[in-house]
Amino acid sequence: MLKERHLIDPMDLTIEETENLLELAENIYLNPEKYSKLCEGKILATLFYEPSTRTRLSFEAAMMRLGGKVIGFSEASFSSVSKGESIADTIRTISCYADVAVIRHPKEGAPKIASMYSSIPVVNAGDGGHQHPTQTLTDLMTIKSLKGSLSNLTVGFCGDLKFGRTVHSLIKSLSRYENNKMILISPEELKIPNYIRTEILEKNNIEYDERENLEEVIALLDILYMTRVQKERFFNEEDYIRLKDSYILDEEKIKKASKNMNILHPLPRVNEISYEIDKDPRACYFKQAEYGMYVRMALILKLLGVM
Ligand code: NCD
């Protein structure tokens, strides 16, 4: 039962709970009317201490499409945080006003701290360069709909694997399914953090390969998961400028890929996928963004114990 639990890390969900959520999301996607009043009288709070388009708005739209209401802030400067309030005090207060809270924060671990002081479910909507479990649910729903399964896949992660929290969470989740192979493509400075390598990939005997060149491996991939270089996590602008255009997927580069390879991206994109790729049938990132709302509807229903 997910009722009254927190979702901080993708591993907070068992495989079975994850699959139940994906199945519910799929049912909502096919028949949204059936679910449109289930959260009447309920309130979702969105506490966003960092910018967001898809995550915040898809959560808000999700709650509204379930018949519930939404409160919150999209910039910390509009709340008492700017007066120096701690996240513990903020969440204690929000717990009195809302039924579920969604938190994005630049500090790794902040939603976890909030959950320790909260009497309502807390969802991590991205904590620094750490984890982003609801993007992972979105990614899993997309992969499952495209490939019919979450096993036996060769997945290429390309770009900023060091700071990309969506990458960390998706690697964790995909490592639980059978026979997945990961190809990790990044510049030397943006390789995955060591804890992902040792505690997830090596501990679970996942086959993986770390590469710098996308073109050398693109033909092997079932899924190519592109990511943005996370400008906001860099200590100096020079490094960002040097690394930001390390990978630009264009028509030329994609020629070597299989016609069955799908391109995912959590978005926002900057330069890493050229606009000419959007019309390629393998480009699935806008479908992925659409699914994000349905998985969040499923998650809200489960956390509130409505379903
Ligand atoms: C991602 C994030 O915030 O981590 N975006 C999202 O939630 N869809 C990816 C990113 O910002 O690059």
UniProtKB/TrEMBL annotation:
<feature type="binding site">
    <location>
        <position position="132"/>
    </location>
    <ligand>
        <name>carbamoyl phosphate</name>
    </ligand>
</feature>
<comment type="similarity">
    <text>Belongs to the aspartate/ornithine carbamoyltransferase superfamily. ATCase family.</text>
</comment>
<keyword id="KW-0665">Pyrimidine biosynthesis</keyword>
<protein>
    <recommendedName>
        <fullName>Aspartate carbamoyltransferase</fullName>
        <ecNumber>2.1.3.2</ecNumber>
    </recommendedName>
</protein>
<dbReference type="InterPro" id="IPR006131">
    <property type="entry name" value="Asp_carbamoyltransf_Asp/Orn-bd"/>
</dbReference>
<feature type="binding site">
    <location>
        <position position="54"/>
    </location>
    <ligand>
        <name>carbamoyl phosphate</name>
    </ligand>
</feature>
<comment type="function">
    <text>Catalyzes the condensation of carbamoyl phosphate and aspartate to form carbamoyl aspartate and inorganic phosphate, the committed step in the de novo pyrimidine nucleotide biosynthesis pathway.</text>
</comment>
<comment type="subunit">
    <text>Heterododecamer (2C3:3R2) of six catalytic PyrB chains organized as two trimers (C3), and six regulatory PyrI chains organized as three dimers (R2).</text>
</comment>
<feature type="binding site">
    <location>
        <position position="55"/>
    </location>
    <ligand>
        <name>carbamoyl phosphate</name>
    </ligand>
</feature>
<feature type="binding site">
    <location>
        <position position="228"/>
    </location>
    <ligand>
        <name>L-aspartate</name>
    </ligand>
</feature>
<feature type="binding site">
    <location>
        <position position="104"/>
    </location>
    <ligand>
        <name>carbamoyl phosphate</name>
    </ligand>
</feature>
<dbReference type="GO" id="GO:0004070">
    <property type="term" value="F:aspartate carbamoyltransferase activity"/>
</dbReference>
<comment type="pathway">
    <text>Pyrimidine metabolism; UMP biosynthesis via de novo pathway; (S)-dihydroorotate from bicarbonate: step 2/3.</text>
</comment>
<feature type="domain" description="Aspartate/ornithine carbamoyltransferase Asp/Orn-binding">
    <location>
        <begin position="152"/>
        <end position="301"/>
    </location>
</feature>
<dbReference type="InterPro" id="IPR002082">
    <property type="entry name" value="Asp_carbamoyltransf"/>
</dbReference>
<feature type="binding site">
    <location>
        <position position="165"/>
    </location>
    <ligand>
        <name>L-aspartate</name>
    </ligand>
</feature>
<keyword id="KW-0808">Transferase</keyword>
<feature type="domain" description="Aspartate/ornithine carbamoyltransferase carbamoyl-P binding">
    <location>
        <begin position="5"/>
        <end position="144"/>
    </location>
</feature>
<feature type="binding site">
    <location>
        <position position="135"/>
    </location>
    <ligand>
        <name>carbamoyl phosphate</name>
    </ligand>
</feature>
<dbReference type="Pfam" id="PF02729">
    <property type="entry name" value="OTCace_N"/>
</dbReference>
<dbReference type="Pfam" id="PF00185">
    <property type="entry name" value="OTCace"/>
</dbReference>
<feature type="binding site">
    <location>
        <position position="83"/>
    </location>
    <ligand>
        <name>L-aspartate</name>
    </ligand>
</feature>
<feature type="binding site">
    <location>
        <position position="267"/>
    </location>
    <ligand>
        <name>carbamoyl phosphate</name>
    </ligand>
</feature>
<feature type="binding site">
    <location>
        <position position="268"/>
    </location>
    <ligand>
        <name>carbamoyl phosphate</name>
    </ligand>
</feature>
<dbReference type="InterPro" id="IPR006132">
    <property type="entry name" value="Asp/Orn_carbamoyltranf_P-bd"/>
</dbReference>
<dbReference type="InterPro" id="IPR006130">
    <property type="entry name" value="Asp/Orn_carbamoylTrfase"/>
</dbReference>
